Amino acid sequence: MARYEKQEKKDFVRKNEQIRVPQVRLIDSDGTMLGVKSVTEALYLAKQQELDLVEISPTAEPPVCKILDYSKYLYEQGKKLKDAKKKTAKTAMKELRIKSRIASHDLEVKIKHIEDFLKRKDMVRLVVVFHGRENQHRDLGEQMLHDVAKRLEPIANVEGGLQVTGNRMSMIFVPKN
Predict the structure, then answer these.
(1) pTM of the model
(2) Which of 26, 119, 135, 143 could form a disulfide with 34 if both were Cys (CB 3.0 to 4.6 A apart)?
(3) Are residues 69 and 121 in the same domain?
(4) What's the pLDDT score for residue 57?
(5) Handedness of CA 63, 66, 72, 78 (dihedral sign)
(6) In sequence order, what are the beta bridge partners of 157?
(7) Does 137 score more than 90 pLDDT?
(8) Are residues 158 and 105 in the same domain?
(9) In this structure, are 51 and 125 located in the same domain?
(10) CA distances (Å), origin 37, targets 3, 52, 159
(11) CA distances to 99, 131, 146, 166 from 169, in Å
(12) Do residues 128 and 58 share a domain?
């Protein structure tokens, strides 16, 4: 049985003889507009400069082509893509679980962890888990979450308020910008 690898969809850029339209809007290597030219004339001008004719905007009417070095163009496109990836915010959701009868020092340690996560710009979900008869005292868990929210107020906002699901009660903290 053959295993197929997932292929990434690449933006295909036509160059030189791959351009099959009769006329193109031509831009020179220094950025000056040369106007609408036939493809053969544009290819001739590109070969004179020992560069490639690259289709920049295939959807335009007529398509826009530029005379440039194709390998340099691909390098710059890759560089732009990497810069765009760097600029996108990467926020992760961290989850901390505690019991409703947690000791005060243990809660302090958990709050320190939450503060560290928030300083790294991560979102934090604090979950209080109730076991057995603890379900009768959900108000203690709710009070604990509100106390933590008050304590983290200078560095975090609460998103969505208090959420109750089954035997869990949670609150999501988002770092302030």
Answers:
(1) 0.52
(2) 26
(3) no
(4) 87
(5) negative
(6) 174
(7) no
(8) yes
(9) no
(10) 47, 15, 57
(11) 10, 12, 11, 8
(12) no
HSE, CB side, 13 Å, CA atoms: give it for residue 118. Answer: 24
Q: For 111-126, how does the pLDDT look when each residue is reduced to its tens digit (9 = 90+)?
A: 999 999 999 989 999 9
Contact between residue 165 and residue 172 where contact means Cβ atoms under 8 Å apart = no
Neighbours of 141 (CB within 10 A): 25
| Residue 122: both structure tokens together | 């991560």
Let me know whether 100 and 123 are in one domain.
yes
Domain that includes residue 104, residue range = 93-175
| Amino acid in the structure at residue 59 | T
Which SS3 state, helix, strand or coil, does residue 165 take?
A: strand
β-pairing, 64-68 vs 52-57, is: antiparallel
Give the chain's domain count: 2
Q: Do 155 and 149 meet the contact criterion of CB atoms below 8 Å apart?
A: no
* 89: pLDDT strictly greater than 70: no
